[in-house]
Amino acid sequence: MRRLLLALVGLLALAACSMAPITIDVLPMLGDDASGSRQIASAGPVEMLLPGPDGRQVSGYEVPPIRPATVALDYALDLQRDGQMEGDVTVTFYLAASESDLWKAESQLGEPLAVSLAETAQTLSGTLELNGAQIDALMSGNMVIGAKLTGTATGQATISYEFTKLLLKVTFI
User: Fold this and answer.
1) Nearest-CA neighbor of 16 among 5, 28, 8, 24?
2) Which of 28-32, 60-64, 89-93 has the lowest mean pLDDT?
3) Are strands 108-116 and 70-97 parallel, antiparallel or unpaired?
4) pTM: predicted TM-score of the whole model, two decimal places
5) Domain assignments of the chain as residue spans, ordered by start
């Protein structure tokens, strides 16, 4: 009996090790919130929460019940400025469990990305690793995601954004 149990545990461990990575395309789950624009008139601090003040609830995806070894977010975000504005902002991505405060430091994905508002169009892209709490949020089947632009600016402009890629790459051992 003991040998059978050990063999079964070994087979389960082997099966977990051999699971192929999966990709979850979050972009379609954003719907109309994948793009938008905001009018900014400023001579000082600027803050934009994308797609809105609560981020965007994401659910309806499937993840195997086995905890992933790593999860990374591949992203691309297009930013455009229409109008006269100068200044520097940072863009920071966030992911949290749906019942959590999205904009807290623990929900931050990677480091903030520098953006110059002197540019009329920019694309930010890269890969950000999820931490343990963020992997837990993914495994729960219901999470919230968003991005925050913060900095200082002078002028008046419309800032448009469009998420063009949001892929969660899930790997198991």
Assistant:
1) 8
2) 60-64
3) antiparallel
4) 0.86
5) 21-171
